[in-house]
Write a structure and sequence with these properties.
mainly alpha; 2 domains; 10 helices
């Protein structure tokens, strides 16, 4: 590493310029270093400086790529959460859950409508939506139990539970659609339609 670059890097990573590393143009200097000089910088850095460099990469990747819709939906506030905030977190995501599961079930409603069973399909979809929302209501109590039992280890429990529950609901909906299609095909071959 050249002495000029070494001086620049030591200035960038000095304790007095820690905040500049995270948000200033000096951050770009660190990211633009050649590989050998970057590794030299990492070898000479203190643990605190390494942590700041790592956080700077996290901030850069977030700002460059932008926050995706999924990240916004599953974001959980940091720190201790009250029972009310847990309940509000789950209830504010219920419309997203309903839209996703509803879109997954839409093909079966359309298919049944084509076969003249539109009324029955709408009633079945309504009952299925009620059952899916009853199951969704179990998310908040499950998070409360996890936070009570596992304390800090349950910080990411809500997004994981929301994501897995939504995936499970979509898979179940698609499987039921396939069952409906199989019943229609069987009915067509057996002469019922």
């Amino acid at each position: 590493m050249s002495s000029e670059t070494a001086n620049s890097v030591s200035q960038i990573t000095s304790a007095s310029k820690v905040k500049l590393v995270v948000s200033g143009p000096e951050l770009e200097k660190i990211h633009a270093l050649p590989v050998d000089e970057y590794f030299d910088l990492l070898e000479e850095a203190t643990p605190e400086q390494l942590q700041l460099i790592i956080h700077s990469f996290e901030k850069v990747s977030r700002t460059k790529s932008g926050a995706s819709l999924l990240q916004k939906v599953i974001a959980v506030p940091q720190g201790r959460r009250s029972l009310f905030s847990i309940l509000m977190w789950w209830e504010s995501r219920r419309p997203v859950y309903n839209i996703i599961v509803g879109l997954a079930g839409l093909p079966s409603i359309l298919l049944l409508s084509l076969f003249g069973m539109g009324h029955a399909a709408c009633v079945a979809a309504f009952v299925y939506a009620i059952c899916a929302n009853i199951c969704y209501c179990l998310g908040a109590p499950a998070e409360v139990v996890a936070r009570t039992c596992y304390k800090q280890n349950a910080e990411t429990y809500a997004p994981v539970l929301f994501t897995l529950g939504t995936i499970f609901s979509v898979v179940l909906t698609v499987l039921l659609e396939l069952l409906v299609v199989a019943a229609l095909v069987f009915g067509m071959f057996s002469g019922r339609f």
